[in-house]
Design brief:
- Helices cover 25% and strands 20% of the residues.
- Strand 4, helix 2 and strand 5 form a beta-alpha-beta unit.
Length: 157
């Protein structure tokens, strides 16, 4: 099993087969617009601008599970990110990353890379790095900025 076996809803609620990303290096991130880590959108966009033409994609999954920090609709979240941080990478519908309603994709990601605190996602802006074959290579805590992941992305490209 790989990330390519999952289907997720995008910000417009259209189903996206993650198999569409075969052959690409992915960074999967649960995000929020009202979080102390929200300025990481700027760093994420810089990574995307730098590596997108080499086969790099960011999959952004807003999550409102942590302190109600992503309270808007999908349209509001997309507008906020595009206007404030000029994001152009793929944004998906809001999901839950922990608990009984967690997205199956996140159940899979957490099983692959449990992290320091076990499998539970601690907060928004937890990042999972996926290689071109759909394997989960690494997991980064919310405090790890996008800039600190640059070298690992470059290695996989």
């Amino acid at each position: 099993m790989t990330v390519y076996d999952f289907k997720m809803k995008d910000a417009k609620r259209n189903e996206v087969d993650l198999a569409e990303y075969k052959g690409k290096v992915l960074l999967i991130v649960n995000t929020a617009t009202g979080c102390g880590f929200t300025p990481q959108y700027e760093g994420l966009q810089k990574l995307y601008d730098k590596y997108q033409e080499q086969g790099f994609e960011i999959l952004d999954f807003p999550c409102n599970q942590f302190g109600n920090q992503a309270p808007g609709t999908e349209d509001e979240i997309v507008s906020f990110c595009q206007l404030r941080y000029h994001t152009t990478f793929k944004q998906f519908a809001k999901i839950e990353v922990n608990g009984e309603n967690e997205a199956p994709l996140y159940t899979y990601l957490k099983k692959q890379k449990g992290g320091v605190l076990g499998s539970k996602i601690k907060w928004n802006f937890t990042k999972f790095l996926i290689d071109r074959d759909g394997n989960v290579i690494d997991r980064f805590a919310p405090t790890v900025t996008p800039e600190k992941i640059d070298a690992k992305i470059k290695e996989l490209l």
